[in-house]
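FAQ: What does the model actually see?

It sees only this:
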Amino acid sequence: MKGYLGIDVGSVSTNLAVLNEEGGVICHRYLLTHGQPIQAVQKGLQEIYPTLPKDLEIRGVGTTGSARQLTGLLVGADVVKNEITAHAIASAHFYPDVRTVIEIGGQDSKIIIIRDGLVTDFGMNTVCAAGTGSFLDQQALRLNIPIEAFGKYALQSESAVRIAGRCTVFAESDMVHKQQMGCAIHDIVAGLCEALVRNYLNNVAKGKDIQKPILFQGGVAANFGIKQALERELGTEIHVPKFYSVMGAIGSALLAQEKMDGSGPSNFKGFGIVDMSCHTRNFICKECENTCEVVEFIVEDKPVSYWSDRCGKWEAEVKKF
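And it is asked to produce this:
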């Protein structure tokens, strides 16, 4: 039995998915990265391994996300692609007629415009946290509301208050002011959801040709309040895929399958890497005037790879492990 592994490592979450030859999801995991991408990937592999069929052979591995290069080195990826490509591939796999993908994750947000199965335009927001899941987490903690119940609170509102959503600082101070005025918590939560949506549409999606069918994915897609606010602003139904939280990983697995179809064995290093001692360290190279801060990847106390140097002196040093 052939399987294809996809791994999406971001600043907030690390997601894994294993697909069969027909593109069906055998298993998946959504984990928090906690600033330790290597350990998060190892933990994810350790968790999914016992759930896989005994006769399954991993024939291809793909990585994506902000730590895709590091993850690719760790696991032995056959293909390393950006998040836009991975999310678009996964979206078209489940919804072949999709035309717009809204993706809001923990640290950034994206919009992908698809026409006839191809990406024709996209936008990303990686500067301001006001339109991301981490901001919602912070406000849920401040309001003493479980993040899982955040959307339900918003749906209870009949009159959402107006929250300034263009900046996290202004949004938080505005929320405090509304609380001091005696506004109900569910109205404040609903107002925050609407503010996040306005911020997204006025920044990430500004000038984009948004057409239906529209998919909403990423961790924030679990928030019913955000989904309702998006539908109200756009005036149309929005679909949330079954595997909304791991679509990047699924897309990576699909890309790996496409790359390895009919080719030789995978570069996958096996599930034994969960027991390896792996870490990174930074150092300043002073061999030229660039004085680059170089990142060194170390496995079992042996340096195996380097990156982030400008001249390429260190990046050429890649060793097998």
